Amino acid sequence: MKTFQVNGQQGLSYIHVGESLSNINSYIPPGVTPVIITDENIKGLYGNKFPDGPVLTIGTGEKIKTLATVENLLKQLISLYCDRGSFILGIGGGIVTDIVGFVASIFLRGVRFGFVSTSLLSQVDASVGGKNGVNLSAFKNMVGVFNQPEFVICDLDLLKTLPKAEISNGLAEIVKHSLICDADLLAFIENNRQKALDLDRDTIFRLVADSVAIKSRVVQQDEKESGERRKLNFGHTIGHAVEKLNQDKSNKEQQVQAGHGRAVSLGMVAAALFSQKKGMLSQKDVDRITALLKGLNLPVELDYKADQIIKAASRDKKKQGSSLYFVFLECLGKARVEKISYAEMNDFITSVFT
Ligand code: GLY
Prior knowledge:
This protein is α/β, with parallel strands linked by helices and 354 residues long.
């Protein structure tokens, strides 16, 4: 096991990579019975390993990440007579942890909480760093708070029940971390691609641990995203636009196929091409990124038209007037954030995606 920490403005957070859900009782405050919030899938798969305590469940899928779900959970906490001494344990992927972190942060103006992170995407990204919240209207993560969980348990054994598409979704965020910060990690993924897809224990341990190391370091420098943390949005400006367009696809299989990591993969290819256009990356660099993503069963070709992407991107919550912070790659392993106009980004999108 490896432990990382983030010393957030509202408290210290420990992220334990390689720890097991079975040891959860040693992380819960002594003498406190936690309220567990999870989803039906996770409860069905791992409910027998949960600690004692009431279990509240939510549905699955991005569409339940709403204020209505939050209100429902808050009412259930009231019915359970929870008070300031309560502890809330979120067990699930990024949707569960985003919602639980928000609920715990606003219930009675904040109660203690921790996570057991069950998906690769949430272990390497969503559950780490203290961003909690829900979507509102068409806007992703529009309402929320920065607040660090007391702990995040990244149990690698729980990844074994994930659909293969979900493994690829998580690998997209790991590739992102390598591209923005760590050329050695990039080479490691390239050399261990199949082992990563097969969840080989040592490989996945290194990938999750290196990602958490990168993310916790960046968050420690800039918890509230006023500078360095923006780099973590590499591939996300166009990626979020693609994700919004994908959300119209309604059946469950299509939603996994259209998951966050897959959208980020397309966003990273677009951002790499934009970096090339700006003279930062070579064609060889772009080809290397594309080949790696393809090899991880991630999409690299957009099937939306330029005007659809431009429209969806204009609704990004990070929009600041007519400009935005766009994350480029200066070289493989190093990101650069530049404030550019929407007009410049839209010209780029039009030039590449007819
Ligand atoms: N997923 C990007 C961040 O946590 O800042």
